[in-house]
Predict the structure.
Amino acid sequence: MREPRSGPPRPSSTRRLPSQAEFARVGEDHRCVALDLVGTGGSDQLPGTGDDRYRFVEHRRFLDAALTALDLDGPCVFVGHDWRGVLAVDRARRRPDTARGVAYLEAGVVPVSWHDGTGPDRELSGALRSPAGEQLALRRPG
């Protein structure tokens, strides 16, 4: 974690940690903090078993606690990819006083539905959730 020189902090919650060069470039005038999702990267697994340990509300709770512990309750620019982008938008919605802005990529931040055509392809989604799903996801094109 780089300490701030000036400017707002930019907590980052991404699947891929930014490189040292990326952190150095943005960190020249911002405090950059990259947070793992609970149970991923360098963070500990939660006790117990079952997928319910890693529900959205659990990630939200840990994100809020981490931001408070790091004294990042002031206006921040949140950056997130995929699931982490959803957490960033959620944080900004719940605590607008802590968000100066949000940048996200490939995050499901708007409602989708199979009924209005905004949802994922039913045939592909169904196949990926079937017993053959892992092989479909790992298959190389061509």
